[in-house]
Amino acid sequence: MPALAKPRRLLVVTAVLVLVVAAVVVYLTTRSDDEPVAETATSSPASAPTSFSPPSSTAKPAPLDAAGYQKLLTDIGASITPAVQQLGQATTSAAVRDAGTNLTNAAGKAIEKLDAATPPDAISGTHRSLMTDLNVLYNSSVSKIVSDAVSNKLCGGISATAALSRDQGIAGLRGTLAKLTAAGYHLGPLFPDPQPDPNRGAANGAVLTGAGGGKNTISVKNSSGTDQAVTLADGRSAVFTVYVKAGATASASGIADGSYTAYSTGGTDWDAANGRFTRDCSFSKFSQAASMKDNGYTHTNLDLTVREIDPYATSSSLSPEQTAIEAADYPR
Questions:
Q1: Distance CA 222, CA 306 (A)
Q2: In terms of residue numbers, what domain contains 250?
Q3: Nearest to residue 216, comparing CAs of 240, 238, 237?
Q4: What's the domain count of the chain?
Q5: Given the DSSP bridges, would you call strands 258-271 and 301-307 parallel, antiparallel or unpaired?
Q6: In this structure, is residue 245 part of a structural domain?
Q7: What string of pLDDT tens digits covers the 332 residues of the chain?
Q8: CATH number of the domain encompassing residue 249
Q9: C-beta atoms surrounding 280 within 10 Å
Q10: Are 173 and 217 members of one domain?
Q11: Is residue 189 domain-resident?
Q12: 237 and 299, same structural domain?
């Protein structure tokens, strides 16, 4: 009957679909492992990598043996020690600044060398501490020294080294170096033990240079708040220098005839060997004429008052008879 034809055709279509699905299943179960399988964007987490290995070029090298690590420390000491010595030998603010910059650079290179090395397992913690301490030296301790040199708070190596020796970052470094020593390694000491600020000076009225050249005299009242060394100069050459304590008045004689310019440098800790203060330095020049003449009957006495000088003040705000100058313009 015609009504039965449609169900028979439906059964045939269904049978064909079953055969197609079965063929696909057989293909997937028998495919070669070398044939690619398409992946969808929603692959399961299990198919994702479980770890990341950096390129071999960034991998740390094998741990150094004891001799190799000691050589590394020796190389670091050989770069830092000369910079520390340069700082101690500095005699001007500019020299302190330059030595501090060199020390910063040496510390930076030391950090790079340590970071590139793998220490022996037994001292891995001390190795990390050493890197941390040198980072403090690089970023903080020496930066403070350089900053104080720029502002003339530090103008001599002995005071700069003393200040650095008391720095907390250096104290941490000393502790790490002691641990290295206990482990059988050697680096340093690099920096001296903690030192107080030096406070040297000369006697009030002491003639530092030029005594006995003539009968002319000088009287100086020091109202600056710091010790002062007052100099009479012929051009760029110092002819006569007298030391005057803070708050004191001093007189000195023995000045040869001549036309001079008067200068004064003040500060703390007089370095007699170099003729300079090593902390809180100031430099000034007097506009007052300093013509000295002994005619056999009378001689010249020059009266000066040294006042506090702000090295950053404009000329218009300073005393007209005494103005700030750069350290490089002070006669020697």
A1: 5
A2: 207-329
A3: 240
A4: 2
A5: unpaired
A6: yes
A7: 344 344 444 333 333 333 333 443 334 334 433 333 333 333 333 333 333 333 444 677 899 999 999 999 999 999 999 999 999 999 999 999 999 999 999 999 999 999 999 999 999 999 999 999 999 999 999 999 999 999 999 999 999 999 999 999 999 999 999 999 999 999 988 999 999 999 999 999 999 998 777 899 999 999 999 999 999 999 989 999 999 999 999 999 999 999 999 999 999 999 999 999 999 999 999 988 889 998 888 889 999 999 987 765 544 445 568 999 999 999 98
A8: 2.60.40.10
A9: 19
A10: no
A11: no
A12: yes
Residue 118 CB-half CA count within 13 A: 9
Domain shared by 220 and 129, yes or no: no
Which of 182, 197, 225 represents a domain boundary (last residue)?
182
Contact 159, 278 (CB under 8 A): yes
Instruction: Tell me if 324 sits within 8 A of 310, measured CB to CB.
Output: yes
Show the tokens assigned to 249.
Answer: 């008045």
Read off the pTM: 0.77
| The residue to which tokens 């304590």 are assigned | 245
